[in-house]
Design a protein that fits this description.
about 0% strand
Amino acid sequence: MTNSDSFSWRRCLAYGRMYSPLIKYQLILWPLVALAIFLLSFASGFISFGIIFIGLLGFLASFMVYFGPMVFAFGPDLSVETILPVKWSEKAVFVIVYSLILLPLCVKLPIAGGVFIAQSISPGLVQTNSYIEVQSFSLSSYGWVGLVQELIPAAVCLLAVVMYSRRRVLMATVWTFVSLFGLGIIGFVVGLLSVFRMGCNDGMEGVGRKSPDEIVTSLMHSMSPYLIILAIVAAAFIVTVVCLICRRFKNRQI
């Protein structure tokens, strides 16, 4: 292989086989766990206090996306990886596509598919099942912003795995939680600004006369400009992290 060689998907996939069988197990396990999360959440949606279990299961699904890239911390020694006859771009494409596209799809598609099938069979579940109600609201409103934000911790985790040569699992865990803490602060600020904006627009008396559904709709309307800005910033951050990952692979290529 020379620098003049064109990009090869065969070499790209061959590089991924270095992390087998962990990747194979992950590609099988993640969709199965996501399906189990949907079924347990769906069952909890019929219980009055089931929202607690739904929240905990939702955290589990998100953490599967956040820490999925850590599979690349258990591969061969970096000195071996560096001398492989694989271009740096092929290595970067594999880890980025796998971590930020394939793994999130393995988690989100079984859940979204389950919600779609449940709604198709019984449209009334939106009123009787709290989990279906929440998922339907997320998918029909600004749920895409949450999907973009979920990629931030995953991108940070992958960047830490690629950047560090020692204690990769520890450092990836630390920086992923740092990114989650930062997102939590941003979400808190956005929430406060949205509530303040809604109060200024409707007044306290106007808010008090609204039903819970109307309050949620009004709050989402107040949040919409902040969510769009947040999504743009999140996308720019992810692109920056991806560039750093690519540069890291390029700099350590022999």
